[in-house]
Records
---
Amino acid sequence: MTAEPVLPPPTIHRAGLRPTDLKVMPAEQQATLDPYMRLIVGNRKSGLSLNHIVGCPLDCGYCVRHFWGNFDDKVPQMLVTTPEAVEMLVAHPEFLPHTTPLQLFNKATDPFLPGVKPHTFAVLEELDRRGLSNLVLIITRFHVREEDMARLGRLQYIRPTLLFTYSGINDARVEPIAKTSTTVDSIRTAAAHRGNTKVILYWRPIVPGWNDDPDTMAGVLQVADETGVDAIVFTGYYHKEENATYLRDLGVPVPYADNWQRRKVLPGELDASVVQAWRDSGISIPLYRKTSCGVTAAWKLPDYNGHLGVPELCDICPSEQVARCRQALKAPTPDEFRTALEMFGFDPDTPFLIEDGHVLTAKLGEQRRYALQHYFGYQVWEVEHPHVHSAHGRALEGYTLTPEEQDLLEQARERLAASARHDDD
Ligand code: SF4
C-alpha cells in the first residue's frame, strides 16, 4: 500500500459538532436531494429502515452516501421532526407491530453522533412507550458510553441490537476514525454493559489489500473474543464508481475491476480465508455471513430473511441456530403469497413461483421483495438477479457464472414465464 498522506482531523472535529439540536432541512434544499436520500421509511435487506436524518462527518471513504450525491453533507439535518418520523414508520403499510424488523439511521448518518443520538433514543423510547417489541438494528462506529447502554437497558419492549462496524482497517484515507480507539472502546463498553441489548461486531468492509492480511484478521477476531460480543457478522464492500473514484483519488488501491456491482463484493477466496481465520482463532464467538443471521441468532430467533433457503450460507452456523431456522422455514402457499401481495397493496398480478428455499418473482423491486421476505421468513428472489451457488447473494465479482449456471438462469426465467402462463389459463 502506498504511503499515507497527512490528513486533517476527521470532519467531526473540524466542524466542532456538539450535541445541539438538529435543524430541519429547508424544503428547497430537500428538493435537491436524490430521491433515495429523501425516502424516510423504506425497506432494506435487514429491515424496514427509518432515515429522517441525513448527513455525516465521519468521512469513511467507502460510504454508500457517495452513490446518492450526499457525501459532502457533513452536518446532520432532519428531513422531518422525530415525532413525525415515528408516525411515518408505524403508519407505513409494511410496518407490522412486533414483527417487522426495523433499522434506524443506517443509510445516511451515524445514530451515535452527538447531534443524532438524542433522536436515536427518542425513536426507541417512543416505540417502546407504544409497547412495540420489534427488533431494531442500530449500526454505529462512534462513541457508545456506559450511560447509553443503561438507557438502552431501560427499554422494556423494543429489542435493540447494536452492530459496531469494525474492519481492522488502519488507513485513515479509508476510515479516518480507524486511527482512534473509538470503535473498539465502544464495543468493549457496549458488551460489558449490554443488559438486554445484543452487541455484534460488524466486520466490514473486508477488502483484499486493505485488511485481509492474517494479522489484521486475527486482531479483529481478538477484539470479538476479548469483548465477548454476541456474534460476528462479516461482509464485503460496495464496489461502485463513485466511492472507487473517491478512494483512488486519495491514492487508495481499489482491488476490483471497473465492472460496478449492485451488491457487496466478497470473492469466494476471501470468504474462505475469513472463515479459516475464524476457525484457526479457536474463539467461541459465532460467525455469520448475513446481518439478519447474526441478529436473530443473538436473540435466539430464526432468521427473518430465510437464508436457510440458501443452505451453503449455514455451514458455519451453530447447530442449535440451524435447528431453529429449520423448524421455522416454511414455504408460503400460493394463496398465502397472493394474500400478502394484497395485504401490502402490491400488484396482485405479480408473477411468482414457489420453489425449494425461495419464491421466484419478477419486477417487484427490492422494496417489495424485502417486505415479503421479512413477512414470510422465506427468500424472495428476482428472476433477473441470479443467486450463484456459494456467492451467498453477493456481487458476482470473484465468481464466474458457469455455462450450467447460465442455463439455470434461463431455466428460471422460463419456469416463471410458464407459471404465469399457467395462471392465465
Ligand atoms: S441456520 Fe442459516 S439462515 Fe439460520 S441463522 Fe444460521 S446461517 Fe442464518
Note: The pocket of iron/sulfur cluster is lined by residues 288, 290, 293, 296-297, 303, 307-308, 313-314, 317, 321-322, 325 (CB under 6 Å).
---
Amino acid sequence: MGKESIYKQYEPAVTPQSKAFGKVYWFAFCANDMLVKVENGSYSIPYMNDLREMNISPVRAQYLGLLKGCPCYSAEIASQDNIPLGMEFIPLRALFDLIDMDLFLLAGKAFQIILWDQSHQFCGRCGTPTQELPGERAKSCPKCGLITYPQICPAVITAVFRGDKILLAHAKAFKGNLHSLISGFLEPGETLEECVQREIMEEVGIRVKNIKYFGSQPWPYPNSLMAGFTAEYESGEITVDGTEIEKAGWFSPGNLPELPSQVSISRQIIDWYIQKGL
Ligand SMILES: [Zn+2]
C-alpha cells in the first residue's frame, strides 16, 4: 500500500485537553457533502475558531483529536443555504485529489462519526435518549445500559488470478463498462477468508485457493472497512449471478476494461498487479 498512515501526524481523542483553542479544522457536513473553502481553484478545510464566525450553527459537533497539533472537529450542518462566499459544499468522494490526503482521510473519519452520532441519539433497544460515555467514542443508555460504538461494516474485496490474468467483473450498479474486483460484506460468524470464498462463489461461481491479505481501507460511504485480498483460481467456470454481477471475465494487463477510481483499494490492488507484471 503506497499511502502513509495518517496516524503519523494524527492523535485521536474524544475529549479536548484544553478549552483554550485557537483555530481548529472544521470537518462540517450537510448530508453527504462537506463544507470546503475554495480559493483560486484550490480547496481547503475551514480553519477557524468557530463555525459561528460564518453564521453557521452546527446541529452537533464532535472532537476528533489533533492533526499536526491542530484540533479537529466534525460537525453536522442542517442546511446548505446561506453559505458564505468562497465556501462550497462538495460530496466527500469528489474531494479525493482536491484536498491534502491526510485531510481527506480524516474527513472520512469525521463523516462516519457524524452519521453514527446522528443515528444513535436514542437507545436502539429501549428508545431512551442516549448519553455520551466519558472519554470514549461510545454512547450508553441510562435506562437499560446498552452501550453502542461507531458502527463499522467489514467487507472483503479480492483480486483472483488465473495464470497472468485477473478476474474483473461488471456489477449492475456500475456505470459504463467499469469493471472491478469481487467484493461483499462479511456475514455474522464468518472469517474474512470464508467471506472471500463465499462472495466469489456466489457472484461468479469460481472456487479460489491461497487467499492472502493485501491491505485495508476505511470506506466511509457510509461506514465500511474494505479488507483487500489476493487469491488464486482453483476451479470452476465463470457463471455470473445475474443479479449483482452482470458480466465478468479474465483480463490481461495489456487488455483491461474501464477501471475504478484511484480512491479505491480495488484500484490499488489492480495497479499493484499491473506493476508487478505477473
Ligand atoms: Zn436502552
Note: The mean pLDDT is 93.
